[in-house]
Amino acid sequence: MQQSNLNIYQRLRDFNVPAPVLDEIFSNDEDLKTLTKSWQELKDQNLKDDQIAEAVAEIILKELGDDFIQSLENSSI
């Protein structure tokens, strides 16, 4: 994994995006391309990595929904 992608992965994990979700995004070339392009566009607007990660994580978690997140948490117990 490229260093910049690893940074994105770790920052999104810091903002509570579950690893299985990130693994799915990072294993799909189109999803990864969309994520990195969006990340760079936000960075070009002078946002810091933590600000970007917080905003992106919020979108991902909102799209997944609470039921899905809870099902992931319950399956790892």
Q: Report the principal-axis shape.
A: globular
Number of helices: 5
Runs in which pLDDT lies below 50 for 5 or more consecutive residues are: none
Radius of gyration based on Cα positions: 13 Å
Estimate the strand proportion. Answer: under 5%
Distance between the termini: 28 Å
The total beta strand count reads: 0
Provide the residue-averaged pLDDT.
89
The succession of helices and strands, N to C, reads HHHHH
Largest sheet: none
In terms of structural class, how would the helical and strand content be classed? mainly alpha
> Level of helix content?
over 70%
Brief overview, please?
This protein is mostly helical and 77 residues long.
Based on the model shown, name its key terms.
mainly alpha, globular, 82% helix, 77 residues
